[in-house]
């Protein structure tokens, strides 16, 4: 009799934990996230969440999480971990989504570090796409960090620079492929 009561209690406990896990992880809607979990999250539909600041008529600043039109690649229902936020040097309080941080050498060093680049595919995917929008191929850009870091930053700042597409003949100078460029982290 006692073992049946324990079994029923155990089954109820397992069901309660499963329902709780489904509720907390299951269906992420950006508009339901708070300020501290919004940035670098991805909704159930695969759209990236973005932190926005609204100023009320009273002058009060209110932060809200919204859904951007930017889609994540192969990621859904995700709130980025604190480990990746720290490893990649990103800020949970960042407003909007922008490629401006690619102009900051300290940020680029963290983004291109093995800890971030190979361990945080959600953040790398976001900045890979932002860099591509600026005409920059992120793996090559990360490879160039160090001796050519200032030159790479200058090329991003200039409005005329457009990186050649990967695989095109212009991409590989003198027909030499760069096999040491970091690849995107596997999912």
From TrEMBL:
Organism superkingdom: Eukaryota
Pfam families attached to this UniProt entry: PAR1
Signal sequence annotation: 1-26
Keywords, sorted A to Z: Signal
Keyword Signal part of the UniProt annotation: yes
Protein name: PAR1 protein
Originating species: Handroanthus impetiginosus
